[in-house]
Specification:
Elements lengths: L1 E10 L2 E11 L4 E5 L6 H8 L7 E5 L6 E4 L11 H5 L6 H17 L6 H20 L3 H12 L16 H15 L3 E5 L7 H13 L3 E5 L3 H7 L2 E6 L2 E5 L3 H36 L6 H13 L28 E10 L2 E11 L4 E6 L5 H8 L6 E6 L5 E4 L13 H6 L10 H7 L16 H13 L5 E5 L7 H13 L3 E5 L3 H4 L5 E6 L2 E6 L2 H7 L5 H6 L13 H7 L2 H48 L7 H31 L2
Parallel strand pairs: 3-7, 3-8, 5-6, 6-7, 12-16, 12-17, 14-15, 15-16
Antiparallel strand pairs: 1-2, 1-4, 8-9, 10-11, 10-13, 17-18
Helix pairs in contact: 3-4, 4-21, 5-6, 9-10, 20-21
Length: 653
């Protein structure tokens, strides 16, 4: 569908891509992987047409639409959330014009068996589906479904976009792109601003409703669940694997082993040749052989090792000065914004040397509690920071707070003090900013490089309480592993706010669950926590929001029920159980009925599409096709609601 041809990109005489070729096919779901700075985001910009390569081209067939979500964007704030997202429907007239043009072309075609004819039919079918969605009531329903799936409450729909943080405005832009249903989705770190429930929803959307997808993400679980192809960018070349990320890792290791052996064999061959030349260079009887070996040596195409050398990335936190036994003690801690109580009655103690995780849905108070600990906002209750506690804080937006107009070196030089200033070059070199890289302006760095630079600032002063709010955003897999190991070896206290299960596994020994205005302490690691909660994933944790029950007066029916004899209570419970089972059976019946209707409609659509493919386009065949697509969308919505209703009844058993 989209062809990348002989693509090369150079920055300051340095080659980022060198003669790259590959094709993005329909239904491909591609993960672009590689170390920070390898060119993943640049590749997406070139495909999206926002950046020109040094040489080569990107061929996009006429009519193929592309949706692009960058890591960072400048957003306007003049509309409400729902009106901003409705902009996705603004291209209906353009779609109609294209639909009419393609139908006119179809009427003149007779090459029914050709590939171009079948492509034309498919394009008309896709346009029919999009127009059916956008011109029907289902368009608004789909809009609401996407916004809710991305974490918005219906009460948020009429709020101005200016009231939302950058992360939430990124979700608004993502909602617009998903609603447009482009043929190719280009997503650059889409999970960075999503909580796990929204990540799970996006996974489902991309696997069931999206066309081709090319994404950059450092969330292992997300790319494993979404992608079926992995393209690695390394040293200006690409390596294409028709598998998801986990399988790619194993295959890549095999490739690197083969590459190492080939490299070693070639080095031996080069050394032997050079030894021969040196030994017989001045012997007239061997002059022909020597010249032959010199030419042979010049023709050898040198093998490069693609494996990233991580030995230069030495991440180690300074030894922690000794603090009191209890760095953080909270008693009846609460925080409200107006009438909205974020959390209340939070009581917990974090001991010296503990590593703990804050988990839960966005908006439940994780970052708010961190701000309370940092004394950045007022709160109710008591919060005591222990004796001699020195806090090192990495905020979610730390990388964005860097001054883009100064260099990497100046960024560190301005905050370094004392003897550290004489070692800045060494420190930068340890973080892979050695040589010319230290003179780059911050604004040209990738997201991962900016995060790494912000992390260096955190390391300049010894601390004994590390608070890291989403520290892995924009970091590549290798750097995440190195950061995780450095935190494990740190002898101070650590609080990590993260949605990344892989990162938290084996790192934390206690989990604080945020939800329903409460903060609950759970001993054990992240997977022990999930097992205790009998949850398959953190998304299920976030779905199970606790509800606060109002206090019951003594003379209420509920209180009387509690006073009933045990036998009577069992009978009431049994009756309630029977009623719930009856509701489940009804929901199951409705689900089966809608599934049967979907099957019937899909069969009718298939029959019509077979006729179109055979050239039988008489009468109102396209109108009937559009009507059936509209009907299918409506029944699909009914089916989804029935499924949600059934799941709700089952969860209440």
């Amino acid at each position: 569908m989209i062809s990348i041809n002989n693509l090369s990109v150079e920055f300051s005489a340095k080659s980022l891509f060198d003669d790259i070729n590959y094709v993005i096919n329909k239904k491909d779901r591609i993960a672009l992987v590689g170390k920070n700075g390898a060119g993943k985001s640049t590749m997406l910009k070139i495909i999206a047409g926002l950046q020109r390569p040094t040489s080569g081209s990107v061929s996009v067939p006429q009519g193929v639409t592309i949706g692009y979500l960058p890591q960072q964007m400048t957003l306007t704030d003049s509309l409400s959330v729902i009106d901003e997202v409705r902009k996705a429907f603004s291209k209906v007239k353009e779609l109609h014009d294209e639909f009419d043009r393609l139908n006119a072309e179809l009427a003149e075609r007779t090459d029914y068996d050709s590939t171009s004819y079948n492509n034309l039919i498919e394009r008309i079918t896709n346009l029919t589906e999009r127009l059916a969605i956008e011109e029907s009531e289902n368009g608004e329903a789909e809009l609401e479904k996407i916004l809710v799936g991305l974490g918005f409450n219906r009460s948020d729909f009429t709020r101005p976009t200016s009231e939302f943080s950058g992360g939430w405005r990124m979700r608004i832009e993502l909602a617009k792109i998903l609603l447009m249903r482009p043929d190719v989705l280009l997503l650059d770190e889409p999970t960075n601003h999503l909580d796990i429930e929204s990540i799970q929803w996006l996974e489902s959307f991309l696997t069931t409703k999206a066309g081709a997808v090319v994404l950059v993400s450092h969330d292992r679980a997300f790319i494993d669940n979404v992608t079926n192809r992995t393209i690695e960018i390394s040293l200006g070349k690409i390596y294409d694997y028709a598998v998801n990320y986990s399988k790619y890792v194993a295959l890549r290791q095999e490739r690197l082993e083969q590459q190492r052996r080939a490299y070693q064999n070639q080095q031996k061959q080069i050394q032997d040749t050079e030894d021969f030349i040196e030994r017989f260079r001045y012997k007239a009887t061997k002059s022909v052989q020597v010249q032959s070996r010199i030419k042979q040596l010049a023709k050898i195409e040198r093998i490069e090792i693609d494996e990233v050398d991580t030995s230069h990335l030495s991440l180690k936190f300074p030894p922690a000065p000794r603090s009191g036994d209890y760095p953080v003690i909270a008693d009846e801690l609460g925080k409200a914004y107006g009438d909205h109580q974020v959390f209340d009655h939070a009581t917990f103690t974090i001991k010296r040397g503990e590593k703990v995780a804050f988990v839960g849905k966005n908006g439940e108070g994780k970052s708010t509690l961190v701000k309370c600990i940092m004394n950045e906002i007022p709160y109710t209750g008591t919060l005591k920071i222990g004796h001699n506690v020195k806090i090192g804080y990495f905020a979610q937006n730390q990388a964005q707070l860097l001054d883009g107009e100064i260099t990497v070196f100046d960024t560190i030089d301005r905050v370094a003090t004392g003897d550290i200033r004489t070692k800045i070059r060494d420190i930068l070199g340890a973080f892979m900013f050695g040589g010319e890289a230290s003179d780059k302006k911050v604004k040209v760095l990738s997201g991962g490089e900016k995060t790494r630079l912000a992390m260096i600032r955190l390391l300049l002063e010894p601390v004994n309480l590390l608070i890291l709010d989403e520290p892995t955003n924009h970091l590549d897999m290798t750097t995440k592993d190195i950061l995780k190991q450095a935190i494990k070896e740190f002898n101070g206290t650590v609080i990590v706010v993260s949605h990344d299960r892989e990162f938290l596994d084996g790192l934390v020994e206690k989990v604080y669950e945020f939800g329903g205005g409460k903060v609950k302490e759970c001993l054990g690691g992240i997977y022990e926590f999930l097992e205790k909660k009998k949850l398959a994933s953190l998304s299920e944790l976030e779905k199970s929001k606790p509800t606060q029950q109002p206090a019951q007066p003594k003379d209420t029916p509920k209180a009387k029920k509690e006073e009933l004899p045990e036998k009577e209570t069992r009978r009431i419970s049994y009756t309630e159980q029977r009623e719930r089972e009856k509701m489940i059976r009804r929901a199951e019946k409705k689900l089966k009925e809608t599934e049967a209707r979907i099957s019937e409609i899909e069969s009718e659509i298939s029959d019509i599409e077979a006729k179109i493919a055979a050239g039988d386009i008489a009468g109102d065949i396209f109108d009937r096709h559009a009507a059936l697509q509209k009907k299918l969308d409506y029944v699909m919505s009914e089916w989804e609601l029935a499924g949600e209703e059934l799941e709700k009844f089952k969860n209440n058993l």
